[in-house]
């Protein structure tokens, strides 16, 4: 992959009822090339819109991939990867970092009625997770519109197991959360 190839990483940090969602454009060469921020509701169903909003705020046609950290940020606010792909016309890769039997049982346990059914409907439509070995670490990738997800993840992961766009986005989301918390406390 060319060093100038860009990906948008989207990650979140939450406290309270709202989650800070950060987007970070990072080149395959590890150069950070832009940020965007929005929010989604903890326990809500608006994370898909938040991912799309991060992409749209940037107005960057040069972004070639969208990485999402996990599939259910902000306490089961399930991302619809197909809807993100349709909205941004880019390959979308969800990367998670822990082995799991899936979220079905947890969603069943935590929600009931329509709230449960809507989450399960979105969750069950997503592609299966595929294990990918990256730098001697194992991650799990769901991909929509990407023919070679393992190659793409590896190209954006120069060390460790976390793709650089997601690492930078997570740092940005956490920093924005800390700034907001300091502003709330009068610091």
Automatic annotation (TrEMBL):
Pfam families: Endo_dU (PF01949)
Gene3D superfamilies on file: archaeoglobus fulgidus dsm 4304 superfamily
Family: Belongs to the UPF0215 family.
PANTHER family, alphabetized: UPF0215 PROTEIN MJ1150
HAMAP family: UPF0215
Protein name: UPF0215 protein HHUB_3371
Organism: Halobacterium hubeiense
Upper lineage: Archaea, Methanobacteriati, Methanobacteriota, Stenosarchaea group, Halobacteria
């Amino acid at each position: 992959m060319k060093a100038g190839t860009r990906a948008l990483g989207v990650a979140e940090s939450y406290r309270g009822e709202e989650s800070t969602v950060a987007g970070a454009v990072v080149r395959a060469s590890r150069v950070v090339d832009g940020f965007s921020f929005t929010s989604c509701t903890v326990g809500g169903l608006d994370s898909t819109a938040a991912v799309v909003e991060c992409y749209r705020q940037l107005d960057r046609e040069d972004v070639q991939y969208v990485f999402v950290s996990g599939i259910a940020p902000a306490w089961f606010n399930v991302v619809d990867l197909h809807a993100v792909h349709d909205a941004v016309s880019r390959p979308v890769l969800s990367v998670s970092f822990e082995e799991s039997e899936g979220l079905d049982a947890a969603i069943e346990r935590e929600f009931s009625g329509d709230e449960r059914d809507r989450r399960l409907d979105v969750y069950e439509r997503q592609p299966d997770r595929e294990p990918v070995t990256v730098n001697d670490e194992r991650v799990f990738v769901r991909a929509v519109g990407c023919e070679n997800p393992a190659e793409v993840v590896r190209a954006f992961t120069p060390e460790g197991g976390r793709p650089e766009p997601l690492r930078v986005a997570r740092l940005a989301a956490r920093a924005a959360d800390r700034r907001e918390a300091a502003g709330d406390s009068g610091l």
